Structure formats: structure tokens, C-alpha cells
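OP here, attaching both records as promised.
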Amino acid sequence: MLQIQKYTPPLLVASYFITSVCIYTVCTAKLLQVFWFICLCTNFYVAGNSVIEAFMGIAPLRDARQASARLEAKEWQFPTPDEQLLHLDLIIVAYLPNEQDIILDRVRYALEQIQYPADKLSINVLYNTPHAIEPLESQLQGLAEQHPARLRVMSVPNSSSKADNLNYFLSRGLAKDIVAIFDCDHYPHPYGPRWAMERLTTRPGVDIVQGRCVIFNAAHSLQTAMVAAEFDKIYAVSHPGRSALWGFGLFTGSNGFWRATLLTELRMDDSMLTEDIDSTLRALSRGACIEHDMNVVSYELAPVSLHALWNQRLRWAQGWAQASLRHLRLAWTGKEVQRSGRMRFGLLSLLLVRELSYYLITQYVCLVASVVITQFPKTAHAWAVLIYFQYPVSQWLFIISVSCLLATLWITHRAKSEFIDPWMIVVFSVTYPVYLVITAVVGLYGHARLVSRYSAWNPTARG
């Protein structure tokens, strides 16, 4: 049965492409025009939505940079006095076999570098492991003994996931005011937690603050460079822009700060592959306010092998599909919690249109492939006409979509982190159409895994 589940997703995806291409090869010219128009209109919507979110993200980024410059000029004297700050439980979650080479470094970094009042900061290391790993576990316990007032190290029994580790901590009643969640590969900026706590202390209506995640091993390879550029687009452009446009933010699994009461009430659902998105949507269903803060920065590792990246993105795709299916009703239900029409449309776009876009993007590829088979282009001009200018209306849709894409990438360039070189943005921009197709294929693969009930969890290898 396990072998059947393992091979069913790739067979389903392959069958999807083969069937689609075959259908298009026998369609009439009129039907092809209809399909072509639908695909281009959808791509135009996706591109237009992306560029609007990008433009909406300019103001939050500008405000964050100005606030950082003002505070640096004041030698990092934050407005709120230390004695008025809330207590912070900073959690480092680890699957020990996968992160045994980095966990000691990250714990020492948190102890030494985080700039927060010592009497109001607790660092909690929550790890699970299928077998004892020595002398590492003893070294971790030794660190806890050296810093008894600031560091807890807990081996979570019977845990098989990050969600189990977090729930174990919450079930023990250890959370006080604010809980910050970090994956083990992260280096929080020394002042990152202080920025988050400034917002949470002075704005009681905010329930969750999600910070910006930056890839710091961008220079390792072309793959990590592309992931780093992608993360800048996501965390510095898309997330804050979506929040400004649609009125809600997202907790993305790491570098997120929760009010302890809300997190304790919701917990994490260990049946969900992306428990972070599920918890976000459950929080929104209760009227929680989630905001993005670009000064709450944390640095993380991109997967260094193609296999690790593939496993990571497949898990994300399947998890997003799983969470979208469960919570799509938020777009139209919710009498207990009032949601604006703007937020409902944003949720519909995020949970439905985004998932459907995988099919429309790949259908465009299948449509082009069918025409190549039946009317193989013999010149470069013929290829351009085939792919982009098959019909008069497609010229305008193509020009507008490309303009939206270039604008989005230009804004990403303005928002890039210190680890991104200009050539990385150029390569990312040139290869972005291919990236969209690959993302769509991965999305389909995630759907196929969900349909076949494939549930194996592959942790992301740390390099």
C-alpha cells in the first residue's frame, strides 16, 4: 500500500499532462481560442494581483527603513522602557537528527546576541529525536545548567513533528505573555524580538507579528541565490503588500510572535503538513489581527541540494492545498466574527484562485505543446507568435502581464536583502516564467499527494 501511495502522485501528474496535450491536439480552432483566452486572462489576473500587492508593499518597507534609521540614530533606544515590556518565551524547535550540526551554535547565538531584558526573556529549546544523540544532548543540558534562569532544554517524548513539540510546551503552562517561534536554522536579528515586542506592547489589538525571513547562504550556489531572491519577493514584497491590500497577514512558521493566550487556545494541529498556515487561518477565523513587520528580521538557510528543495516545496504545496481545502469557507462564512468584503475576497484569492492557477498555468503549457506537435514552428518569429501572440487580444494581455511582472521584480530589487547581489535579481527575473511553471507543477504534485493520501513527512536537510 505504501508503495502504491508513493508512485500514485507522479503517475497522476504525468497522466494529467499527457491527457491535456492529447485533448488539445484534437480540439477545433474555436475551442483553442477559448482556452487560450481563459489561460491568458487568468495569468493576467495573477500578474496584476502580484503587482498591486507589490506596490502596496512599498509603503511598509519604506516606513520600516525610516524607523530603523531613526532608532539607529538614537543608539537603539526604543520608545518603550524595558520595565514595561512583556515577557518573551523564545522557542527554538528542532528535529535533532536533522539539525544536530547546527543546534548548539544557534542556542549559543540566542543566549549571547538577542538584545532583550534578561529578566523578561526565556529561551526554550524543544527537540524530538527517534534515538539518543550523544554527546550532543548532554551538551544541550549542560548549557541549560549554566543558564538556569534563561534557558530550558526539553526533549519532547513521543513527538513526530514540530506541532507536537510546540503543543508539549503549551500543555505545560510555561508560556507567559508572548511566544516567539523559530526553526532551528534561524539566526534572529539581535534587535528583531525587540521590534516585535515594541509593536505587541504598544498595540494590544495586535495578536501576531510575523517578521521578515532572509536567506543568508545566498552565495552558496545558483539554487540558494534563486531561493534568496524568491524569499525577498515573498517576505519583503508580497506578504506586507497582501496585508495592506486585503487586511490580513500570515504566520509563516518561523520568526512569528504570538500572544500566549491565543496560541495556547489554538495549539498546533499535528495532522496538518503546514501547521503554520492552518494555525493562521484558525486565528483569522476567530478575528485575530496578524501584522507583518519588516524590522523583525531573522536569517535562515536555503536548502543546498535539489533533493532537499524538492521535498520542502512538495510538503509546502501539499500542506497549502490541505489548509486551503479545510478553510476555504472563511471566504463566505463567519457570522460570529465580522470579516470585511475586502478580506473575504483576499481569502478567496489566496485559498482558491492561487490553487486553481496551477492548473491554468500548466494548461497553457499543454496548449502550447499541442500546437508544437500539430504545427511545429520553423522560425524564431513563428515560436514567438505561437507562445505569446497567437491571437490579437493576447498581444495586449501579454504586454500588460510582462509589465506587471517587471514592476514586481523591480520592487523586489528595491527591497532586496544585504545577501543579494544584483546579478541574482537579474537571473531570477529572466528565469521567472520558468519558475512559475515549475511552481505550478509542484502545486499539481501536492494536489496529487493529497488525493492519494500520501502522508510521508520529509524534513528539510540543513547544510
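Record two, same layout:
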Amino acid sequence: MTLAQPPSPPPSPPSPPAPSPPPVSAAPHPAPAPRPLPVRVTRPLRVRSVPGRIRLLSAVSVLALAVLFGTLFTAAQSVREGLDVIGHDAGPQVVATADLYFALSDMDAQVANVLLIGGEHRLGKGRARALEVYERRRGDAGRAVLQASALAGDDPSERRTVQAVLDGLGRYERLAARALLLDEQSGHPAGPPPKSVLEVYRQATDLMRLELLPMAYNLTLESGTVVRRAHAERSLSVRTGQVLTAAAGAAAAGCLIWLQVFLARRFRRVFNPALLVATAIAGLYALTGVTVLGHEARVLGTAKRDGFDAILTLARARAVGSSMHGDQSRWLLDPERADTYEQTYLEKAQSVLYTPSDNLAAYQRAVAEKAGDGRTAFLGLVGQAAARTTLSGSAPAVADVLRQYKEFQQADRRMRELRPRGAVEQRMTRLETEFEQYDAALVKLAGLYRASFDREIGDGEERVRELWFLLPVAVASTAVLVLGGVRPRLTEYR
């Protein structure tokens, strides 16, 4: 029996031909990987190594030298500023404000002289000369006010005082001009003027004595604080700089010696010439700096105490003397106020040269007994100025001031003993001459102190200039020498 065969599956459709792979091109060579940059490893300074110790000692030495020269630079700068303030800036301006007091008081004295001369224009040195001096003092007062304004700076209190002086001076000049005009129209003989003239002059002199002169005096005192403050600050700075310079100099020399000893022991050398020279320069400059700063501190003290203070005191004495001279004219000019003017004259005289007295006659007798012997153990402005210094050559000038002051007081005593007409002639002739001689003696004494003051300031500035000039040379030379001393030793380790 034949088995039936299963039907064969239908033939599958032919599969599409497989796509041919794309032609293979030659692969490029791969780029070489970048090489890593070499890493520089900074090694810490090995202080325990010989080069590390040399570098450390050199750095400490250079730092000590920098402190030394920095301290000297700062101290020298303080000295320069202090000398400039006392000698060229605030000092002379303060003296100029004292001259303001003199100019104002002499203005009023000259107005009184003109009114006292009256129609006798040739009495004494004449009305024309008194008016000429008045105009000159007006110019002096104007310049002094300008200097006081410059010194006041931005200080509101001082600027208000300066402005008040300017306003008051303008009012005084108007009143004085009116009194002089009325006096010229009256043509009265020498002596007290008419009542109308006297009333106007009273307003002018009261304005001067009670307002302007006190303001001028206060302005001088306020301006003087600038010099005193500058002197105190600069003196302290110089003394501190002197101590710091000595300490820094010792430290710098010690560091250089330490470096020198280390190199000598390590490298079996007796000494390093460059470091020896650097050590010598540092020590010498430190010693010079300490010496110069000590000298400059003494210069600042001498210039302030024996120069500036003495000059300012004599300037005040001269201003008070001019006001006293004006009181003599006012005593004759206004009989109703004669007692007041005599008392104010006595108070001013005792401020110039003091001796205990109850009245003017007793004072003048005491001056006649004591002032002629040349002694300076008096209180008061002249005695203060004479006691401030032992300036060579000042003793004869002080004795001359005292002698001329005694003659001035004796001439005043004789004037007060005369009758009105004779007193006016005495005031305009002999008393005028005695006052001018006393004033000239004061100016001569002040000139001696001024010359000494200028010499001290000039000497101080010259020494500072020398120290200042050598400072860069010392800095550069020590730096080069230290570098030149250690560099050969460091190269041995490379």
C-alpha cells in the first residue's frame, strides 16, 4: 500500500539581494595625544639649608635697614616742616599780627598829636609829619590784617575776629578823618581842641582802645597757638624719631654683623668686605642721624624760646609803648579824662617794666632808682624778653633799653609838672625825642634776637639738607653692598 506524500510548501519568493557594503576607504592615522606640560613643583624655602639661612638673614638685614632709613626720612621731614612753620610761615605772620597792635595804637597817637598841635603847625616836628606817620601806620595796619587773615585759614573764630578788626578800622578812620577836618577848620592854638572836635575824637579813641586794640591783642594770642602747637608736635616727633633711629640703627648693625658671622663660619672666611662696608655705613648714618636729630630738637627749642618768643614779646612791648605815648597826648588833649588816661598809662607802664607802685609818681621814682643799673630782674615784657636768652651781645642792648626807658619816664614826669602850655611843648619836643630813642633801643634789641633766630633756623635747615642729600646715597649703597656680599655665596650652591 502506497502512502500519500504531504504536499510540498509553495516556493518562497526570491529574497532581494543584500546591499553591497560601501567601499572601504583607507582610515587616517590617529593624531598623537598631546603631551602633558611639565609641572613645576615650587619647593618651599628650606630655612634649615645654608642658602635658606643666607636669604633669611639677608631679608631681615634689608628690612632693618629699610626701617632705619624710613625712620630717618620721617624725622627729617618733621624737622623741615617745623623749621618752615616757625621760621618762614606762621612765626613771621604772628609777629606781623603783633605789629598790627603797634600800627593801630600809633595811628590813634598820631591823631591825638595832630589835634594837640592845632593851628601851630610847626610845633615840635609839625602837623605834617604827624599826618605822614598816620598814613604810614594805616598802610602797616592793612598789611598786618591781610597777614592775619592768611594765618587764620579756615578757622571760623579767627576769621570773624579779622573781619571785626577790618570793620572797626573802617569806622575808626571815618571818625578820625572827621575829627581832623573839624580841627583844621577850627584853627585853635596848641592844646585842647574845641568841644565839637573833642567829642568826635572821644568816639574814635574809645573805639580804638576798647574794641580794636583788645581784638588785635587777642588775634596775636590766637595766632601764637599755631606756632606753639607746631613746636610741640614737631619737637615730640623729632625726639621720637631720634629714639627710633637709634633702635633701628642698632638692629640693622646687629643683623648685618650676624650675617657676617654666619658667612664667616660657614664658608671659612675671615670677613666679607662688602658686608663690612654696609655695616659701617649703616652704623655711621644711624649715629649721624641721632646726632643731627638731637641738634635739630635743640634748634627748634632755641628758635621758639630764645628767638620767636623774645621777638614777639618785644613787639608787644613796642606796641604798648606806642599806646603809652598816645596816652600822654590824650592826657593833655582831654582834661576831663586826664585822671583816666594817667591811670591807664601807669597800667601799661607796669606791663612793660614792673615795679610795685601805688601811683605814677612812685612808679617813676622806682624806675629812676633801679632801671639805670642795667639789671634785668624785672617782671614785665622787657624783663621777660631779656630773661629768655643768654644771647651774646644782648646784655648791653638790654641795658640801653632800660636806660632809655628810664629817660622816657623822667621826661614824662617833668611834663606833668609843667603848666598846660609848657606841658604841650614838652610833649611835642623833649618827650617825643625820648620816646623815639626808647623805641629805637627796643627795635635794636629785637634785631639782635631776630638775627640769632635767623641763624638758628638757617643752621637747622642746612643740617637737614645735608642729611636729606645723603639719605638716597646711603640707601642705594647699603642695598648694593648687601646684595654683592651674599650673591657670590649663593652661587656656590647652584
